[in-house]
Give the backbone structure.
Amino acid sequence: MSRLWSSKRLSYLLLVLLAGGFVLNYFLQAASFSMNLTGALHWIGRYPWLYGAGSLFIFFILLLSSMILPNTYAGPAVVSVLCLLLGVADYQKLVTRGEPLFPWDLMLVKNAGEMSKITKGMISPLAVIAAILVVAGLAYMIRKLPRNRIKLVLRLSLGGISVALSAGFLVLVSGQSSVVTAMNYQNIFWNQKVNYTQNGFIFAFAGNLRQSLLEKPEGYSREAVEAVAAKYSALPDEPAAAIPGEQPNILFMMDEAFFDPTRLPGYTLSEDPLKFIHEAADETPSGYLLSPEFGGNTANVEFEALTGLSMYFLGDGTIPYQQRIVKMSSLPSIVSILKSRGYQAQALHPFDETFYNRNRVYPVLGFDSFTSEKDLPDAARITPDGYISDKAAVQEAVKELKSASGPVFLHLVTMQNHFPFTKGLNGPNTITVDGGQAEQKDELETYVQDTKLTDEALAYLQQELLTIERPTIAVFWGDHLPALTAGIYTEAGWDQEPRLKHETQLLLLANYDIGNEPLGTLSPAFLGPAVFRLSGQALPAYYKLLEQVQEEIPGLSKDVLIGSGSSVILNELTPDQEELLADYRLIEYDLLEGEQYAEGLMF
């Protein structure tokens, strides 16, 4: 009788876990549809095999967790909570950033403390209380449910089957085998939002586990790279600016979530928050930076600016810092180019050094030193709960420039303007904003106040540049537009304006004459050649290639292509432009995924 009862309990357990797999998969898919439950049901009807196979994968994960722990309910409970958290994270990322959750996003778990600060205010207290009650309820149920006594041999058998089938699923999906193709699975890596809504969260997430940054170009070989290197090495090198008396310092200042809020139509500001920037824009080279990102993924903008490589060629949603560069020993960049010319290379980021693996990536790019938040215990914040201010970051940058014995390349990534835009976080709001929805007023006024503080920090930087003896040029830009409530951009009519949702302020400052020629709109990958021209630096062959691409397509982004003169949006490319991009793509593949032949030929 006891054996029969034990067998029934095991049968019930298997049925519950099977049902749990289907329910959890439905929840994950609903999250990929922004919690549209009906849309998730329609997807199930259209792709039943993908739904069934994904649900079985979760079932075997649940079963494996059940067999590992003595209590057969504890493991599945933990896995279920993790699945729920994945779904919530996927939903929140879609809402704030417009893109789904990727495997490499989980690398930020190691920065849980910093992430809790960044997301403070985004999750309601009621949701937190509800989550605590659910976890407490599960723990209570686990303690009260009758124990399943499963013999070790059976545990090992069921566990082994679960491991084999789960691993087999991952192999089939990552290899896009004929088995999963027959289920209508196609890894749409170039459009990840469609990838998740068409293939389902489980298949899309699993398919991304072994996603390469870009596909190998046809005809890739050492000879092909040598031909491209020879073509651009032969181009003349004529600096546009007079060479300063000595090698100038170069300061990159990438400002967190900074753009010009006065560009938003439909809103009236009581005063101009960017008085200095708007005045300086007529006196010095300025324009707009076409960010490859919106609302986040700062590291990708930084990646373009430092390496000259373009996100345009990479898979949708990729983060090279976390997926590839952290595994490399070296990668040519503006850092390594300038170091070969006698520069010291320093990085400064007033936040956690491990965010986006910067502490591991910066040495690969060639930086000599990295100053992070832990090295700045006394740096000023507007309020105790705020981030280190932009002015404090600029003060540290100026200090490092003044203390150097030779020319310096200093890369500063600020943090002050990071979301959430909580009223009072950076002091009282001094500018009122009229227009839009009443419930968005505090958020928008807080962001405008943040930009005013950045403008004041830039005015301070310009004054301090005049006190530095060595010629110094500073390149300032915003990394991406802020993750404001979506309705703010909707009210402004920007939902169908990808260019406006990706253009941030770009401004160059110097303590010597660099002219005032407008920069137009540039992708961050082209900042290196632009600043080399203005600082009198000779261009390596790689930068000559970038300059040729910039002349034809100064704004190179998946969201919009901006043609010569920065006024034309390109709907199609000419054969010459296609050839330029083919050369560019070949070199990018070689440096990131290939044999790095170009490192010895074009740098």
The longest strand covers residues 503-510. The chain has 22 helices and twelve strands. The CA atoms of residues 73 and 142 lie 6 Å apart.
